[in-house]
Amino acid sequence: LSSMFGNLEGIITPLLDLGVLRRSVPKEVLTGLVCLLCFLSATCFALQSGSYWLQVFDSYAAPLNLIIFAFFEVVGIAYVYGMPRFSDDIACMTGRRPGLYWRVTWKVVSPLLLLTIFVAYIAVLAWTPLSYRAWDPQYAWFPSRQEKSYPGWVQATCVLLCFLPALWVPAVALVQQLAKRRQKQDTWQDGCPKLQEGGAS
Q1: Is 54 part of any domain?
Q2: Are 84 and 166 part of one and the same domain?
Q3: Is residue 52 part of a domain?
Q4: Could you give the number of structural domains in the chain?
Q5: Which residues are annotated as a binding site?
Q6: Which residues line the annotated binding site for Na(+)?
Q7: Are 126 and 167 in a shared domain?
């Protein structure tokens, strides 16, 4: 139950902070709606095939996405935010800047390791047939579980589970870049003096 509170706050707080939902909606109602949505989306795990769905989600939803998110975080901090700024932040918090070992690890070693793991994971997924172990009383070696291949639509679901959550990272970055570009164009068309001075200099 305690983890459920944390999960709910992880959903509700960003929705309120980003202004996706109005503050006029009572938080109790919002919490109830989120709980109802989570309940309805989790009913597939309570079906007769629930253990198989759990295996699909457990095997394909989390591992690849965690690798991708970690890679984007490392690259974002080391190259987008910048290692000098990050080192300044650490110096502000701890009183000293990180040494050469840590800077090289964050900037070179970690991205390369994560990229290697990502490529290896994709290769294993591509070469290993997607299968599951089913309970089948007709199986010759029952009660051992029989290895069966997933149907095509389940394989498509596995691929979507692997990549859909991770697509939000580049999608949001692209949307923000397009919004910034549009804002710059609008400002330029309005004849902003600051932009004109910057262009002249």
Answers
A1: no
A2: yes
A3: no
A4: 2
A5: 3
A6: 3
A7: yes
Per-residue pLDDT of the chain (201 residues; tens, 9 = 90+): 567 777 788 878 887 887 777 778 788 888 888 888 888 888 888 888 888 888 888 777 778 888 888 998 999 999 989 999 999 999 999 999 999 999 999 999 999 999 999 899 888 877 887 777 776 777 767 777 777 787 888 888 888 887 888 888 888 888 888 988 888 777 766 654 554 445 444
Cα distance between residue 35 and residue 111, in whole Å: 37
Give the integer Cα–Cα distance in Å for 11 and 21.
11
Q: How far apart are CA 31 and CA 37, in angstroms?
A: 10
**Other Cβ atoms within 10 Å of 198 Cβ, number:** 9
Give the global pTM.
Answer: 0.63
Q: List all residues 6 or more positions away from 200 whose beta carbon is below 8 Å from its beta carbon.
A: none
Domain encompassing residue 169: 63-190
134 and 165 inside one domain: yes
CB 34 within 8 A of CB 57: no
Answer whether residue 53 is part of any domain. no
